[in-house]
Amino acid sequence: MKQFLTFTILLFTGLTIWAQELPPNADPGKCYIKCITPDEFKEVTETVVISPEYKKLKTLPATYKTVEEKVLVKEASKKLVYVPAVYETVEVSYTSKEETNNLKVVPAEFGDEVKTFETYPKIGRWEYKVLEDCPSANKEDCMVACFVEYPATSEDLAVKTLKLDASTEKVPVSGANKTYKKEMVKEKATMKEIEIPAEYKIIKKEVVDTPAKVIEETVPAVKETITKTVLVKKGGMTVWEEVDCKIASGNNVLPILYKYNSARLTSESKKIIDDNLLKLMKEKTNLRVEIMAHTDSRGNDDYNMSLSQQRAQSVVNYLVSKGIKRNRLEAKGYGETRLKNRCSNGVNCTEAEHQVNRRTEFRIIQ
Fold it and tell me: What confidence tens digit (pLDDT) does each residue in 233-279 have?
């Protein structure tokens, strides 16, 4: 009893909504189709940095050159005839190689991250379905509108981040010292003085010619382009399209023919589609149509089902090539499941009787 009461409330609510949604300013004797506008999408591309720009450093060590220097190795003095001067020998230290610093590269440090990008947005739309066990002969009396949400989809992309850029640190390079001997006057001569001239020596030593330096190289960032779908215009609006009452309900035959065992459209078939269905779809931009293809009973049942689906899809693909959006079209092959006469498997029929079953139809759907 409780289930029956719930069904009655839903049925009454559905009838109330259906009664309120009627085309405004309708003309007597004309037919109208209720259409729900679809969501409109577009694909956009976005460039993502998956590896950042960073620096590479290369060091060049210091260079040296050898130079000569004149040094005093014996001081000038005086010599006495009677008592010569007394000398002592000492060692003098000098820098034979200057100390400096070389540079050592400390490479850059990186981290790994995962960035999430939305590749398809969350959407919602109204969908209509017929209640089971409808007590009315007219199925439209039991139509229920349900708002269905579809979650967004996303994609993870691994990227590298720069934690610490490259740098350098100093590495000391030791210098070197050497000594040379030098005679110093310990006691001066007495009595007669004789001049003793100074003595010199040429020594070699290494000095820094060019200091250490860094060569810097910039490694460019690595980028990747991703494609995602974004919602341009929200659908779900109810519009009414006036159509010829002859095609407003039921199936409408498209008198097109295919070559034997083929789903390819002939030029004559394309003209028939242009004059009938294409013209209707361009004039009534909110209509959605199902293309239905049928075969006769001759041949394998599964093969006939596949062939009819291919033929229905051929019509859909042709309309899309003429500018009709694919989401306004549905292709359905019925094979030999909807024969219009007695010519089922094993029944002897004429070619004309079989031809009746080989047909392509269309019907307007919400």
Answer: 665 555 666 565 666 666 788 888 777 788 899 899 999 999 989 99
**Neighbouring C-beta atoms of residue 274, cutoff 10 Å:** 14
CB-CB contact of 297 with 339 (8 Å): yes
Containing 307, the helix (H) or strand (E) segment is helix 301-321
Residue-by-residue DSSP string for 12-67? HHHHHHHHH---TTPPTT-EEEEEEPPPEEEEEEEEEEEE--EEEEEEE--EEEEE
Structure tokens at 91: 């060692």
Q: Please report, as a single letter, which amino acid is at residue 261.
A: N
CATH superfamily for domain 246-366: OmpA-like domain (3.30.1330.60)
Token duo for residue 139: 């199925």
Q: Domain locations in the chain?
A: 54-108+165-219, 246-366
pTM greater than 0.70 (yes/no): no
Alpha-carbon distance values, 303 to 256, 298, 311, 316, 334 (Å): 20, 10, 12, 20, 11
What is the DSSP-derived secondary structure letter of residue 131?
P
